[in-house]
Design brief:
The complex is a heterodimer. By secondary structure, chain A is an alpha/beta fold. Chain A has 31 helices and 15 strands. Chain A has 4 domains: about 280 residues, Alpha/Beta hydrolase fold, catalytic domain (Rossmann fold); about 80 residues, no CATH class; about 100 residues, Roll (Membrane-bound Lytic Murein Transglycosylase D, Chain A), CATH 3.10.350.10; about 50 residues. Chain A is elongated and about 105 Å long. Chain A starts with a helix and ends with a helix. Chain B is mainly α. Helices cover about 55% and strands about 10% of the residues of chain B. A 3-stranded mixed sheet of chain B has the order 2-1-3. Classes of the chains: A alpha/beta, B mainly alpha. Chains A and B meet through helix 3, helix 4, helix 23, helix 24 and helix 25 of A and helix 5, helix 6, helix 7 and helix 8 of B. Chain A: This is LysM domain-containing protein. Chain A: Pfam families: Abhydrolase_1, F-box-like, LysM. Chain A: One of its GO terms (molecular function) is hydrolase activity.
C-alpha cells in the first residue's frame, strides 16, 4: 500500500496564473499529465507480489499426517522411534488421545518426569533424559497433547447451533446432497415429506477440534501418564509454562510427587511469544520460513546451538498437524492469575523438596525474574545453568543440577511393588556421583551416541560392574538400534522362540525374494489382502502398490476382461463392490425411469440415486442414464470404462452393453418365454414391493406388458391412498 | 504343442542342483516352456540339461506334475483338476515355495498358477504380522513408516488387530 500512496499525492492542478483577470479560456489542463503507467506498474507489481506471497504461504503448510511423518528429518524420526505412545483420556465421553513419551534409564529406579512448556516438546529434553538415564535414573519426557508427537486434534461431535449462517449452510448442504426438488419429489412419490428423519440427521456434525489443555485436562494427562508408566512417586520437572498448568495437579496429588524442579518457569509468560503464533500474517511467516523461526527461537527461547537443525525440528513439530492452534489455545487458557507464593506455601506443596533451575546468562530481566521466583519459594534451592530458556544440546548442566538435587533427597519408598535398589547399590551410585560433580564433565556433553562413555566407565569400573550385576547398567537402556520394540501402536512381529528371523534373501523361501513369483502370488489376492500385504515389508509394498496388480484384483471377482481409464484417485480401486459398476444406457424417446427399471431389473429409486436425479423429468435433458448392475454375470468378460459422470457426480466403472452384441441382454418388454416372464414378475415384485401373486395379477391384466402393469399398479395405489385419506 | 513332438520315445536327462539325474520323455519335458525353447534352439537332446536352481525332491514333484498333464493332455479336464488339488494338498510351505520357484524357472504355467494360488490362499484373511511369521519375512519398515503405510490402507484392516 505504501507504494500506492507514494503515487497518490499528485501535484495540485496549477491555478491560473492571475485569478483577478477574467479568464477567457477554460482553465488549462494540468500541465504535465501524470503518467498512468507508473501507477499501474506499481499496482501490478504489488498485486503480483501479494499473490505470490499468499500462494506460497498456503502451499507451505501441508497438513496430511502421513506425509508429515514421512517428511520428518532424521533427528526427529529417531526421536520418535525411541519413544512410545500412551493412550490418555482427557475428556470423559470422548475417545482417548495418544500422548508421546520417551524414556531413558532403568525403569525400576527413581522416576523423573519432564513436562515441557508451551511451544516446546519432549524433543528439547532428549539429551537431558539420556544423561539422567545413564546416571541410573528413570527419566521420562512427555509431549503434552497438542505438542510434539502427541495428538493435536480430536474429533468432536457438535450439535448444530441452528443460528443464522450455520442454518443456511446446513440447508445449502442438504440441497447439494439431495437436490433442489427433493422434498417435492418425495411428496409426489410418498405423498408426504419426511421432515423428521431429515431434521435429526442434519443437526449433528463432526468437527475436528484442536486439543487445548486447561489446567484440569493437564492434571488428567499427568495423572494417567504417571499411573500407566508406574512413575509414582515422581520427581516432577516443570519447564516454562508447565508450572501454570501442572500446579493444580501437584496440589491435588501430593502423594504422587516426591519433589519438584522448576526449570526456567514462570506463570506470567511463555518463552515463545504466543502472539507470534496468533497474529495472522506473522504466524505464517514465522512457521513458514526456517530462517525466521530460527531467529525467533534465538531471540526468545534458546541460544543458537545445534546448527539450526534443532530450531528446524521445533518448527516442524509446531507446524505439523495443526499444532499451532493447540498451542495458542492452551496459551489462552493459561492461568495468569496464578500466585506462586500462595502455591508454594499451600498445604500440599509445603512439604515437597523444591529446586529452581534458572538460566543465568540469558538476559538481565530473566535473571531478575529468577530471583523473584526464588524469593517466592524460600525453601527452594536455587541453581543456575548456562543455557537458554529452552533446554538444548548443552543441557548437560541442567541434567547435572537436577541429578545433584535428586541425589540429596531421601530414598523414597516406591508405591509399586518393584524391587527397591538395595542400600549398598545406592551407595555405589552415590559414590560415583560424589566423585563426579567436582569437575564440569567435558565428556558428558557428548551424549549423542549410545556407546559407553569410556572415560566414565573406567573411572567407576567398580560401580559399573556392580550395576551390571543388578542389571542396572546401560544395556537395559533400550538401545536406539531396536526402535521397533519400543513402539506400542505397531507391535513388532511376534516370532516364536524357535523360529529364526530370516531375511528373504537367505531364507529357504527364496521364492519370496523373486519378484516374479511374488507377483504371481499377489495376482491371486483380493484387494483387501493386497492392501494388508503392502504392510509386510518394503518389497511387498512396492509390488502390491503396482497399478496392474490393483486393477487385476479389482477385475478378478467379476471376471472382467478389462478396465480402461484412470480414476481420479487410487482410492477408487479399493472398493470393487457391485456398486462401483454401472451400465450406460443411451436414452431414447420412449424411455422412462420406470421402464428402465423393469428393463434392467433394478429399482426405480436405485436408478435415481445413482444418477443424482431430482425428479423423473430430469431424464429428458440427459443423453444417458447409469443403471446399477443387478446381475453380476453381465460383467463377465466385459470391458469397463472408468468415467466421472457429469450428472451422477460420481466415478464409476461403466459398462457399455450396446457396444457389442451380448446374448445375455434381452429386452424383456414382451415376455416370450417362461423364463423371461419369470424375470419380469420378479422385477415387478421388486419395483412394486408386492408379493408374487399380486405381480402376476397386474401382469396378466396388462397383457404381459410390464410398463402397463406398473401404470395400473400405481394408479390403484393412488386410488387407495385417496380413499384412505377421505 | 503336439505338433512339435516328433518322437514320443525320445528321452532327455535333467540334472538337479544336488546332482541327481532324471530321465524324462520328451513330451513330458515339453510341458516346460524353458525346456521347449532349449530343445527348439539346439536339438542336442543327448546332453544332460542342468537345472542348478532346483533340488531333486522338487524336481521329482515337478516332473510328476508334468507327466500327469502330458499324458492326460486335454482329454479329461475334470480328472486333471482333481489331480491338481490333490497334488498340493498337505504340502508344507518350504516345499511349496521351492515348487513355485521351480515352476517359475522352468516356465510351467499351470503349476505356477496352482502353486501361487495355494500360497495366496494362505495369505488371505490373515493379519500382516502373521503373514510375516509364516513367510519368514523380515520387517524392514521403521515403526513410523509402518504406521503410515497402515494408515494409508486402513480400510483393509477392518476386523483386524
Amino acid at each position: 500500500m505504501a507504494l500506492i500512496t507514494e503515487e497518490e499525492p499528485q501535484p495540485p492542478p496549477p491555478q491560473t496564473p492571475n485569478p483577478t483577470k477574467p479568464s477567457q479560456n477554460p482553465p488549462p489542463p494540468p500541465t504535465p499529465p501524470p503518467n498512468p503507467f507508473t501507477f499501474w506498474f506499481h499496482f501490478t507489481l504489488l498485486v503480483s507480489l501479494l499473490t505470490t506471497l499468499l500462494v506460497s504461504l498456503s502451499t507451505l503448510s501441508p497438513q496430511d499426517p502421513k506425509s508429515w511423518f514421512l517428511s520428518l528429518p532424521t533427528n526427529l524420526r529417531s526421536h520418535y522411534s525411541k519413544g512410545r505412545t500412551i493412550k490418555v483420556q482427557i475428556t470423559p465421553n470422548l475417545p482417548p488421545i495418544e500422548v508421546f513419551t520417551i524414556q531413558s534409564g532403568p525403569i525400576k529406579s527413581d522416576s523423573v518426569l519432564f513436562v515441557h512448556g508451551l511451544g516446546c516438546s519432549s524433543y528439547s529434553f532428549r539429551k537431558t533424559i539420556e544423561f539422567l538415564g545413564r546416571r541410573g535414573l528413570n527419566a521420562v519426557a512427555i509431549d503434552l497433547p497438542g505438542s510434539g508427537f502427541s495428538d493435536k486434534s480430536m474429533v468432536v461431535v457438535e450439535e448444530g447451533s441452528g443460528g443464522g449462517l450455520t442454518r443456511v449452510w446446513e440447508v445449502y448442504n442438504e440441497i447439494r446432497e439431495k437436490g433442489l426438488f427433493w422434498g417435492f419429489d418425495q411428496l409426489v412419490e410418498k405423498g408426504y415429506v419426511d421432515f423428521e428423519g431429515n431434521d435429526v440427521r442434519v443437526r449433528k456434525r463432526e468437527a475436528v477440534k484442536a486439543i487445548e489443555l486447561g489446567s484440569e485436562e493437564m492434571g488428567r494427562v499427568l495423572g494417567q501418564v504417571v499411573d500407566s508408566m508406574g512413575l509414582a512417586p515422581v520427581d516432577l520437572v516443570l519447564h516454562d509454562s508447565a508450572l501454570g498448568l501442572g500446579a493444580n495437579w501437584v496440589l491435588e496429588n501430593p502423594g504422587l510427587v516426591r519433589s519438584i524442579t522448576l526449570l526456567d518457569t514462570t506463570s506470567i509468560s511463555t518463552a515463545l511469544p504466543l502472539w507470534v503464533l496468533r497474529t495472522v500474517v506473522v504466524r505464517e511467516l514465522v512457521l513458514g520460513f526456517r530462517f525466521v523461526f530460527g531467529r525467533v527461537l534465538e531471540l526468545c527461547c534458546s541460544k543458537p546451538v545445534g546448527g539450526g537443525s534443532d530450531a528446524e525440528a521445533h518448527r516442524i513439530l509446531l507446524k505439523g498437524r495443526d499444532g499451532r492452534r493447540s498451542v495458542v489455545g492452551m496459551g489462552m487458557k493459561m492461568n495468569c492469575s496464578f500466585d506462586l507464593v500462595e502455591w508454594g506455601s499451600s498445604e500440599g506443596v509445603k512439604g515437597l523438596p523444591m529446586q529452581v533451575v534458572w538460566s543465568s546468562g540469558w538476559s538481565k530481566e530473566w535473571s531478575e525474574e529468577g530471583r523473584r521466583v526464588a524469593g517466592a519459594l524460600p525453601r527452594a534451592s536455587f541453581v543456575t545453568h548456562s543455557g537458554g530458556r529452552w533446554p538444548q544440546d548443552d543441557a548437560a548442566d541442567i541434567a547435572e543440577s537436577i541429578f545433584q538435587f535428586l541425589s540429596t533427597l531421601p530414598k523414597s519408598v516406591r508405591q509399586s511393588d518393584e524391587e527397591p535398589i538395595p542400600d549398598h547399590i545406592q551407595k555405589m551410585i552415590d559414590e560415583s556421583r560424589g566423585s563426579d560433580h567436582h569437575r564440569p564433565h567435558p565428556h558428558h556433553d557428548v551424549l549423542g551416541g549410545h556407546e559407553h562413555d569410556h572415560g566414565h566407565a573406567h573411572d567407576h569400573a567398580h560401580a559399573a560392574g556392580y550395576m551390571d550385576a543388578y542389571g542396572l547398567d546401560d544395556h537395559i537402556i533400550q538401545p536406539p538400534s531396536t526402535p521397533a520394540s519400543l513402539h506400542l501402536e505397531t507391535p513388532p512381529p511376534k516370532h516364536g522362540s524357535d523360529v529364526a528371523v530370516l531375511s528373504p534373501m537367505d531364507s529357504d523361501f527364496e521364492a519370496l525374494a523373486c519378484k516374479d513369483v511374488l507377483r504371481t502370488i499377489f495376482e491371486d489376492l483380493p484387494l483387501a489382502d493386497l492392501a494388508r500385504a503392502a504392510c509386510v515389508c518394503r518389497l511387498w509394498f512396492l509390488l502390491a502398490s503396482d497399478r496392474e496388480l490393483q486393477t487385476r484384483a479389482f477385475r478378478s471377482p467379476w471376471k472382467l476382461k478389462e478396465v480402461v481409464g484412470n480414476p481420479s484417485s487410487a482410492a477408487f480401486w479399493r472398493d470393487n463392490g457391485l456398486g462401483r459398476f454401472a451400465i450406460s444406457h443411451r436414452l431414447v424417446r420412449a424411455d422412462s425411469v420406470a421402464s428402465l427399471a423393469v428393463k434392467y431389473s433394478v429399482q426405480v429409486m436405485d436408478i435415481k440415486r445413482l444418477n443424482n436425479m431430482m425428479s423423473d423429468h430430469g431424464i429428458y435433458s440427459r443423453e444417458r442414464l447409469l443403471i446399477p448392475v443387478s446381475n453380476p454375470n453381465l460383467l463377465i468378460g466385459g470391458t469397463c470404462y472408468i468415467e466421472l459422470d457429469a450428472y451422477a457426480k460420481r466415478e464409476v466403472a461403466v459398462l457399455y452393453l450396446e457396444g457389442g452384441p451380448d446374448p445375455k441382454v434381452n429386452c424383456p418388454n414382451r415376455a416370450s418365454s417362461d423364463q423371461g416372464k419369470r424375470r419380469i414378475i420378479d422385477s415387478l415384485k421388486r419395483s412394486m414391493q408386492v408379493d408374487d401373486g399380486t405381480a402376476q395379477y397386474y401382469l396378466s391384466i396388462s397383457d404381459g406388458d410390464p410398463r402397463a402393469a406398473l401404470t395400473e399398479f400405481s394408479e390403484d395405489l393412488r386410488w387407495e391412498r385417496q380413499a384412505g385419506l377421505a | 504343442m503336439a505338433s512339435s513332438i516328433e518322437n514320443n520315445n525320445e528321452k532327455l536327462t535333467l540334472k538337479s542342483s544336488d546332482g541327481e539325474e532324471f530321465l524324462v520323455e520328451k513330451h513330458v519335458a515339453l510341458q516346460s516352456t524353458l525346456l521347449q525353447n532349449m530343445l527348439d534352439s539346439d536339438c542336442s537332446s543327448a546332453d544332460v540339461i542342468p537345472l542348478p536352481k532346483i533340488d531333486a525332491r522338487t524336481l521329482a514333484l515337478v516332473l510328476g506334475y508334468c507327466k500327469k498333464h502330458a499324458d492326460a493332455s486335454s482329454s479329461k479336464q475334470g480328472e486333471l483338476n482333481s489331480f491338481d488339488s490333490e497334488f498340493l494338498k498337505d504340502m508344507d510351505m518350504g516345499a511349496l515355495f521351492n515348487l513355485v520357484l521351480a515352476a517359475n524357472f522352468m516356465e510351467i504355467k499351470g503349476l505356477l498358477d496352482i502353486a501361487a494360488q495355494k500360497i495366496a490362499d494362505t495369505i488371505k484373511d490373515k493379519p500382516h504380522q502373521e503373514v510375516r511369521e509364516i513367510f519368514h519375512v523380515e520387517n524392514d519398515y521403521t515403526p513410523e513408516e509402518e504406521a503410515a503405510v497402515r494408515e494409508e490402507n486402513r480400510w483393509a484392516f477392518e476386523g483386524f488387530p
